[in-house]
Amino acid sequence: MSDLATTVTVIDACGRAAVPVLLLSDPGMGKSSLVRGIATAEGVPCETVLGSIREPADVAGLPLVTDDGVILSPPAFARRLSAEGAGYLFLDELTTCPPAVQAAMLALALDRTVGDLTLPVGVRVVAGANPPDRAADGWEISPPLANRFCHVEFRPSVDEWLDGMTVGWAAPPASRAITADPTRIEAVKAMVTGFIRHKPEHLHAFPRTAEATGKPWPSRRTWAMLAGALANVRDDDAAARQGITFGLVGEGVGVEFLTWCEQADLPDPAAVVEDPALVDWTDRPDRVWAVLSSVVGWAASAGTVEAWRKAWGPLLAAAEAGAPDVSAAAARPLAACRPASARVPAAVRERFAPVLAAAGLSTAGAA
User: How far apart are CA 361 and CA 335, in angstroms?
Assistant: First the structure.
């Protein structure tokens, strides 16, 4: 359970990365009031959809025959949000939705697709749910739907409730989320990929019990969502980092990941490119991989010939320091993102000839 300010931060950070959030609590905790309050504070609309009173076509779109063929006409709430260009879509009482409606929500939750309409990037998806045994005619959340949300336990403290009663629910705490720049986004991706290289068994771990399938668990999708959302919180914001991590990949794996991140202490990829000697290339292979992965991501994000050529420096340094396998693994994606006019440095051609040949760069001129 997080404090209210952390919950608002998690919702904001996830929203910036297009990651939907699921607020879980007993009935009457104020989930819908919080979401409406955030929307009011931001000056954007909030549309609430009760899946328990909807048919699948109300969510997935109603088939209509037109002169151009059959289309899936989006419902009114989707058209209103699309017209505004921003806002919150609140899927309330998710555990009262029958399986057919939950299935219709799969594309809506993560891709913000309603019928033939894709909602604007400014629309954020938040859901609310009670435990199935405390919901009216409760249903367990299906594994595919559960795996599309960041799960957040929501139980405001007495003081937070008193503050809401005093100042009004339309004045939620300020978010601590940040706007990630491309370098930070790539650095966080490197943390995630470095951990998975260290613990590949955690890439996908479908729960062993039926109850756990409706909760957060690690999959290829949730790791990608985690990388996007974590980039939008500060490294020193332990509460928000924990809330996002536990909410997407579960507590057990989440503890391992956060511990690994703390121990890895990865440097800025731009600094590594300028001076590869900053890194001990004889360090653990998983840490070396994470550093090189962040360098590759930095070069891919920059998209320039200069950045691409300079990014080979750390890979060469790692290979010469005794980590040729790790550097070769990082060379594959770097070779694949070569700008059209970039020429492969001569030293790179000599060291990574097989990798370059596999990427179709063996005939590219050296410089």
Answer: 8
Contact 10, 21 (CB under 8 A): yes
- Please give the single-letter amino acid code of residue 56: P
pLDDT value at residue 98: 86
Whole-angstrom Cα distance, residue 119 to residue 112? 5
DSSP assignment string, 318-332: HHHTT-HHHHHHHHH
What secondary structure does DSSP assign to 19-65, as a single string? --EEEE--TTS-HHHHHHHHHHHHT--EEEEEGGG--HHHHH-EEEE
* Torsion angle, alpha carbons of 175, 181, 186, 187, to 10: -70
- pLDDT, residue 360, reads 63
For 104-153, write each residue's pLDDT tens digit. Answer: 899 889 888 988 899 999 999 999 998 877 655 667 889 999 999 999 99
Token pair for 320: 């010469």
> How far is residue 149 from each of residues 62, 152, 351, measured CA to CA in Å?
25, 9, 43
252 band by pLDDT with thresholds 50, 70 and 90 = very high
- With contact defined as beta carbons under 8 Å apart, do 257 and 248 qualify? no
Q: Which residue has tokens 């009004």?
A: 168
What would the pLDDT profile of 44-80 be if each residue is shown by its tens digit? 999 999 887 888 887 877 878 777 777 888 889 999 9
Length of the chain: 367
pLDDT at 365 > cutoff 60: no
Tell me the C-alpha distance between 171 and 271, whole Å.
41
Among candidates 357, 178, 341, 198, which has minimal Cα distance to 263?
198
